[in-house]
Amino acid sequence: MEFVKCLGHPEEFYNLLRFQMGGSRKMMQKMDQDSLSSSLKTCYKYLNQTSRSFAVVIQGLDEEMRHAICIFYLILRALDTVEDDMTISLERKVPMLHNFHSYLYDPDWCFMESKEKDRQVLMDFPTYCHYVAGLVGIGLSRLFSASELEDPIVGEDTKLSNSMGLFLQKTNIIRDYLEDQKEGREFWPQEVWSRYVKKLGDFSKPENIDIAVQCLNELITNALQHLPDVITYLSRLRNQSIFKFCAIPQVMAIATLAACYNNQQVFKGVVKIRKGQAVKLMMDVTNMPVTKTLIHQYVEEIYNRIPNSDPSSNKTKQLISTVKTQNLPNCQLVSRSHYSPIYLSFVMLLAALSWQYLSTLSQVTEDYVQKGEH
Questions:
Q1: In CATH, what number does 124-332 get?
Q2: Quick check: is 245 catalytic?
Q3: Of the listed 3, 14, 128, 243, which one is catalytic?
Q4: Which residue in 245, 261, 267, 298 is the catalytic one?
Q5: How far is it, in rounded angstroms, from Cα 286 to Cα 338?
Q6: How far apart are CA 155 and CA 141, in angstroms?
């Protein structure tokens, strides 16, 4: 199905096919499982269960950073689960959070009473995003610098590190409006949506779709303010694996915002980038010039869809203009082929079907031979 979705996007089709036929092993380095301790094996097991996307970028890190970031991520996810669970009383939650560091040394400690689906945000939007994502960015940056794989300034500049986390967190909150509503969670900031409706759930009503989109565009504009910091932060990175670890999620985020901007579907169903598009970004984001070009393409896509009647239109245009002046190349990525998209898609589909046919034929032949031996 993913191959069919990409037929109109030959570059995505090419990368999806390449990813399926071995490119994934380049993105996520194969680890020697036998060399891992039992505790590290458990960590990677939980990492893959917790987040597929972060599991890929974490396991793409150089070995000296991979284990540290894996453990760092799992600890923060555990803290986040406790902090976000509104069914835990404050009298119990606050001491648990304060003492959480001590539980890491107790192999028998566990907490099985979390009901994460009942979480709601109690703090204001910027503060919440800072604590659940900004501090993650700051912690990661300090790890990068402490490893000496990156310059000290990366860990010292907490403003830029904070922006890296905020941009990702705000994007996730914006995109997941309908999913969160269905699960009884509310993350959109009340100080924004309350200017449009009495209850956040009212945005899903057909009669409110116009003001819902206006609120959506305002929140996306709010997230875009972090892009200049993101670009500056990424431009300071020197280690290839750390750059990809940081840049891939950020480019995914701006692509997601471009898909959500001025889009009524956010309030009706799932809005996400195509798998082929995601794979293409994962494989293309290898250096700063390409990353800047991709950011430019997506902000330009947003800019071209700004309604003049939108209350946030002037601010959105201003922010995008600021991003554009940040030494971004005004150019398209060079296509790998001069053939027409239809012809190239046909050839790729034929190649994919042929590859699947040969794989099936090979398996059938192998089974036949094995049966013959018996």
A1: 1.10.600.10
A2: yes
A3: 128
A4: 245
A5: 23
A6: 5
